[in-house]
Amino acid sequence: MHTRWMMILGLLSLSVSGFSTQAADRVELSTRVSGVVEEVLVKSGQNVKKGTVLLRLNKVIYQAQVDEAHADTERLSAEEAEARRDLDRAQELYSRTVSSTTELDAAKLRYTRAKSALSVADAHLVIAKRNLLDTELSAPFNGVIASLPAAPGVVVAADCQPKVLVVMLR
User: Fold this and answer.
1) CA-based Rg of the chain, rounded to a whole angstrom?
2) Is 15 inside any structural domain?
3) Which residues sit opposite 53 in a β-bridge?
4) CATH number of the structural domain spanning residue 71
5) Measuring CA to CA, which residue among 44, 42, 46 is closest to residue 54?
6) Could you tell me the pLDDT band of residue 8, with boundaries at 50, 70 and 90?
7) What's the whole-model pTM score?
8) Is residue 44 located within the same domain as residue 107?
9) Measuring CA to CA, which of 12, 78, 88, 142 is 20 to 30 A from 103?
10) Alpha-carbon torsion angle 43, 32, 51, 146, nearest 10
11) CA-to-CA distance for 56 and 150, rounded, in angstroms?
């Protein structure tokens, strides 16, 4: 009798004389962000492929955060451009000995502050976009939905012990 064990993507397969059986890993899934479950797109016992959207949280707040971060980025980009023009003028006037070192240093400081504020705003925009994407919970691998403790209206708080929303077998 020929026995072979192999581990493939967490799926334990056992082949014995042409017969095969599989033991599934149980994986509990939750969202990375907090919110209210708006829509559950799968059912218990359903086979799903990697990337299939399993559920969605209400994304109104997360979309508003993206919009706000985008507006901040645009405003600070304009401020950074203005500070850059002021610095260029200050450098030109300084090189012609029309202005002082103090004025040039002040222009450099304003530009550095504007550039830094824009970098922070860009980072906030990236985070806001990521959080918006994370309002959807997708299957991390091909598998079977074992159970769905989630339903529309369920509140998920990601900052404490995450609530199990979907249990998958692979």
Assistant:
1) 27
2) no
3) 138
4) 1.10.287
5) 42
6) very low
7) 0.77
8) no
9) 78
10) -30
11) 10
